[in-house]
Structures are given as structure tokens and as C-alpha cells.
Amino acid sequence: MGSELTEFEQAVVAVLDQTEPGDVMTYGEVAAEAGFPGAARAVGGVLRRVDDLPWWRVVAASGRLIPHDPKRHAALLAEEGVKTKNGFVVLD
After folding, report:
1. Cβ–Cβ contacts within 10 Å for residue 15, how many?
2. Under DSSP, is residue 72 helix (H, G, I), strand (E, B) or coil?
3. Domain that holds residue 61
4. What's the pLDDT tens digit per position in 5-23?
């Protein structure tokens, strides 16, 4: 995709590129920081379409991991020191 990214996609990529291991954000937080508040669902689309983004650092507003593969999501977060339990991020 590269240069074919939309303004929104570029903004989401920029936000996610600034995350570091152990960071966790909600889809809504990513959208807001990208300058598109209210576009949380569209962030998920960007994560599906754009390769090499740290998608595992993004969770639902409730802290829920991705429903289609929560074990993989939890494992990737655990590698970065993030605790999860029963399909949700554990907030300390």
C-alpha cells in the first residue's frame, strides 16, 4: 500500500509507530490521537489492511482482546509485559 494510504490511514500508522513495547491503547484512543475522534471502528480496518503495524497493542474500550484469536493477542502482549486475564487486559 505504501504511498496509497489515505490521510486517515497515514495518521493511524503515525500514532501506532509511536507506541512502544508494553503500550496498550483502545481503538478510540488511536482514532482520537490520529485526529479522527469517533473513528474507532475504522482503526480496526486499518489494522487489517496495513502490514507490520503493532496491532496487538490495540484493544477494545473494555480492554477486550480480539475475539477471533485472543490467545495469540494475549501472548504478544505478554511478551511485552502486559498482563491479560480471561480475554481482557488487566489494569493495575
Report:
1. 21
2. helix
3. 2-89
4. 999 999 999 999 999 999 9
CATH number, domain containing residue 67: 1.10.10.10
Residue with cell 509507530: 17
- Structure-block grid coordinates of residue 51: 502490514
The reply to whether the predicted model has a pTM over 0.90 is yes
- Looking at the structure of the chain, the number of domains it has is 1
Task: Please state whether 86 falls in left (phi above 0), alpha (psi between -120 and 50) or beta.
Answer: left
Query: Which pLDDT does position 3 carry in this prediction?
Result: 62
The neighbouring-strand residues paired with 25 are 58
DSSP state of 7: H
Question: Which one, of 56, 27, 19, lies nearest residue 43 by Cα?
Answer: 27
